[in-house]
Amino acid sequence: QVQLDESGGGLVQPGGSLRLSCATSGFTFSDYAMGWFRQKPGKEREFVAAINRSGERIYYADSVKGRFTVSRDDAKSTTYLDMNSLRPEDTAVYFCAADAVAPYIAPQLYDYWGRGTQVTVSS
Question: Rounded to whole angstroms, how far apart are CA atoms 122 and 13?
Answer without folding.
Answer: 5
